[in-house]
Design goal:
The complex is a heterodimer of chains A (366) and B (386).
Chain A lengths: L1 H22 L2 H8 L5 H9 L18 H12 L7 H13 L9 E3 L8 E3 L2 E10 L6 E8 L2 E7 L5 E6 L5 E10 L3 E2 L8 H33 L1 E2 L2 E2 L4 H30 L8 H29 L10 H11 L6 H19 L7 H7 L1
Parallel strand pairs in A: 1-4
Antiparallel strand pairs in A: 2-3, 3-7, 4-5, 5-8, 6-7, 9-10
Helix pairs in contact in A: 1-3, 1-4, 4-6, 6-7, 6-8, 6-9, 7-8, 8-9, 8-10
Chain B lengths: L14 H19 L9 H4 L3 H10 L17 H14 L4 H17 L2 H6 L1 H5 L5 E4 L15 E5 L2 E9 L9 E7 L12 E7 L5 E6 L8 E12 L10 H13 L9 H11 L5 H29 L5 H22 L14 H12 L10 H11 L4
Parallel strand pairs in B: 1-4
Antiparallel strand pairs in B: 2-3, 3-7, 4-5, 6-7
Helix pairs in contact in B: 1-4, 5-8, 8-11, 9-11, 9-12, 10-11, 11-13
The chains are: A alpha+beta (366), B alpha+beta (386).
Chain lengths: 366, 386
């Protein structure tokens, strides 16, 4: 059973990999920022059903595990996809989890980890400062709160006030302003979902994207220092350059290991959007480590690439700008570190100083 | 394009592993409360207490993965991992048996004679027999293939002459594994002609002299071998296999929890003192350290799983040690912000003592078992750059 599932997952990942390789070359990524909309890529992703990976088969989706979708997100980030696949996946997941109808076109995720818009007497009020995927969306998916309970609401984009902006990486980030807005669809309370649990899950999504992009940055760097010759030999033959590459490999491996552990834990948890302490530790760890690695790896990679890596034409910058943007979203390393430290301190205080020796250790080994 | 994606599989943790962890924790809590040991930082190198090692031997916690007939319990590598990490975070004095449990025992198991296995392994598992490493020399550090210690064939065995340096804990050990040149030195084949011997340290011609380190501990040694005779069956494996043995030993040596938990005991004590009045800034520093340790542990357990599956994850192990040993140092540097480190004995304050001792010991973390520069070279080779 487990093996079959793994095989199916791998099949889907392989299909996606071929699709991205064929349709998402560096020219497509740069072109998207020059105003050439990646229509073929968008359509191919929809046709392949990738945005529905987390939608049950009964609702017309793939019925994939959380691990499958998160691995797909990590893989897509390795192509700097100029399409909001990750956010559409989460938006469709919210629709499916809450029993609402799923769209086969693009769904925008109007959630950025800050306070949820408020539902009162059938009307929604509030602002989402950085929704993802809004410009091309057929539907806005908005987690809202009613008396502390999370529900999912949808809106037709044309009916909602929006201000479109771009992230550092040129990804659409939209201020969504909801004024007495009446949802097109409105779910009941979503079992086991809290606003903080959702924020933790989305932080893991960004951490997976960072991990995928860092691997690509590592590959680009290794390739470049092998090719580029100075002083009569490849840069990679210089020990100083080798050590930079080793540092890139280390930080990237650390982020990868943290992300994989978090993916395993969240996939195995009965309530993955609850913010339960068993998943908080690995999720916070993943976002802290990945976000820290984003800064270190890009610094070393750009140093190894010289001026070439600073040019728009060379692909490195597409990945650098993405990880710089993703590391801030849904909580930076500073935000999650503080929460992690406070959570451990609270556990220690609760037990009383000196009572049990291994409190911090428990938070590490759990 | 060269892949830089590494695989760190999840270990298979069954109930017996969790139970063993609880058992070890309970034992260590009780020992600490009853004064059986005083926690020390870097305990696997600086905490020497042969009596405590014997206690662990009686608990059955040394050599747990070895066959029963040689004193082991045939438990998994993960069982051993759990025992070692619990000992490390408790700051238990485990140096006496550490090397024999981690590396010399498995080496003897893989390459030793049946006699060695029957006579020595059960004594190691009982915490009664300790083994030192004879690798570095006065003229041979990172460039280990340049060792000058020589072994000459004589009637019935070998005669060893040379000097080994920085051997940790040799004064407490009954044996040393000595890397010696047995073949002619060929500049083009530097790794050939090297052989490891298991040498009893009470052999005539052996002198062991302690060397005080900058933290005030005398755990380093200079061991001199003057025409020391060992019989033929002191050879580990085949003559000329020394280099191959050492490189596979190093994979075990490089990825264990002692490569990122050496100063954890200081962090734990700092948190006990600071938890009640923790500021947001302190929490952010502590949280970032804890996240990094968690991630390193996931990597380290992944390497353990790979070793268990029969792989040789040399690059992954080097990554763990490079990142982990730097983290051990960073922990102390970052805690200094809140707990300045001034006095050697910390005025009798346990946290201050652990911090100051950590600081005085930290230069060794990124040197022992292969410097971080050597490790980065291994990683770069793995990336196809050398």
């Amino acid at each position: 059973m487990g093996f079959d599932m793994e095989q199916t997952d791998q099949l889907i990942l392989d299909t996606a990999h071929r699709l991205f390789t064929d349709q998402c070359g560096a020219d497509v990524v740069n072109g998207a920022e020059r105003g050439e909309a990646p229509e073929r890529l968008r359509q191919a992703i929809l046709d392949a059903g990738l945005t529905l990976a987390w939608v049950p088969e009964a609702a017309g989706g793939v019925g994939g595990s959380l691990a499958l979708g998160l691995n797909l997100i990590r893989q897509a980030a390795g192509f700097a996809l100029p399409v909001p696949l990750a956010d559409a996946l989460v938006a469709n997941l919210l629709l499916a989890e809450s029993g609402l109808a799923v769209t086969e076109r693009w769904a925008a995720l109007a959630f950025d980890g800050d306070e949820l818009p408020v539902l009162l007497q059938g009307e929604v009020n509030g602002v989402v400062a950085a929704a993802a995927g809004a410009p091309e969306a057929a539907v806005l998916v908005v987690p809202v709160t009613e008396k502390g309970v999370v529900k999912i609401a949808t809106f037709a984009p044309s009916t909602i006030e929006m201000e479109h902006q771009e992230s550092l990486a040129g990804e659409a980030r939209t201020r969504v302003i909801l004024k007495s807005a009446i949802p097109g669809q409105l779910s009941g309370p979503v079992d086991g979902m809290t606003a903080d649990g959702l924020k933790q899950f989305c932080a893991l999504v960004r951490a997976c994207q960072i991990a995928g992009a860092l691997e690509k940055i590592g590959e680009l760097t290794v390739g470049y220092v092998k090719e580029r010759q100075q002083f009569g030999r490849p840069l990679g033959k210089f020990q100083a350059v080798q050590h930079k590459v080793a540092d890139i490999a280390g930080e990237s491996a650390l982020a990868g290991a943290a992300v994989e552990q978090a993916v395993r834990r969240v996939s195995a948890h009965p309530e993955p959007f609850s913010g339960d302490s068993d998943i908080f530790l690995p999720l916070a760890t993943a976002k802290v480590v990945a976000s820290e690695a984003a800064g270190k790896v890009t610094r070393d990679a750009h140093q190894a690439h010289g001026a070439m890596g600073f040019s728009f034409e060379y692909p490195l910058q597409q990945y650098s700008r993405r990880v710089w943007s993703w590391r801030e979203e849904f909580g930076s390393e500073f935000y999650w570190s503080e929460r992690l430290g406070m959570a451990v301190a609270a556990e220690i205080s609760a037990l009383g100083a000196g009572e049990v020796a291994g409190c911090a250790w428990d938070a590490v080994s759990r | 394009m060269e892949s830089v994606r590494f695989n760190f599989p999840a270990p298979e943790i069954d109930q017996s592993v969790d139970e063993l962890r609880k058992e070890v924790r309970a034992f260590l809590d009780e020992e600490r409360r009853s004064g059986g040991f005083v926690p020390v930082t870097d305990c696997w190198c600086a905490g020497v207490d042969p009596a405590f090692s014997r206690k662990l031997g009686r608990q059955g916690w040394i050599g747990v993965t070895w066959p029963r007939q040689y004193g082991g319990r045939e438990l998994s590598a993960l069982h051993r991992y759990v025992i070692t990490e619990e000992l490390l975070v408790a700051g238990a004095p485990v140096h006496a048996h550490w090397i024999a449990d981690r590396q010399s025992g498995p080496l003897i198991l893989a390459t030793g004679t049946e006699d060695m296995k029957r006579n020595i392994l059960p004594r190691i598992a009982a915490g009664e027999c300790f083994v030192a490493l004879g690798l570095s020399e006065p003229e041979s550090g990172s460039d280990l293939a340049s060792v000058r210690t020589r072994a000459h064939r004589v009637e019935g065995g070998w005669e060893i002459t040379g000097t080994k340096l920085w051997s940790s804990g040799a004064q407490h050990c009954q044996y040393m594994t000595v890397l010696a040149r047995t073949g002619e030195r060929d500049p083009n084949r530097r790794h050939e002609g090297l052989t490891q011997f298991l040498v009893p340290l009470d052999s005539p011609g052996v002198t062991v002299r302690g060397i005080r380190d900058m933290s005030g501990v005398e755990h380093f040694n200079e061991s001199h071998f003057e025409k020391v005779f060992v019989p033929d069956d002191a050879v580990l494996g085949q003559v000329g296999e020394g280099w191959k043995q050492i490189t596979s030993e190093l994979a075990l040596e490089r990825s264990g929890p002692e490569r990122f938990l050496s100063t954890f005991v200081a962090l734990e004590r700092a948190l006990q003192q600071g938890a009640a009045a923790m500021t947001g800034h302190q929490a952010a520093v502590v949280g970032s350290i804890i996240a990094r340790i968690r991630a390193l542990r996931a990597m380290s357990l992944g390497v353990a799983a790979l070793l268990g599956q029969g792989h040789s994850p040399e690059v992954e192990a080097a990554l763990v040690k490079d990142l982990g040993t730097r983290l051990e140092q960073d922990i102390i540097e970052r805690l200094r912000e809140f707990w300045p480190v001034r006095m050697k004995q910390g005025y009798g304050d346990e946290l201050q003592y652990l911090l100051s001792d950590s600081l005085l010991r930290q230069p060794s973390f990124t040197l022992r078992g292969g410097t971080n520069e050597v490790l980065k070279g291994i990683i770069a080779r793995g990336m196809g750059l050398r």
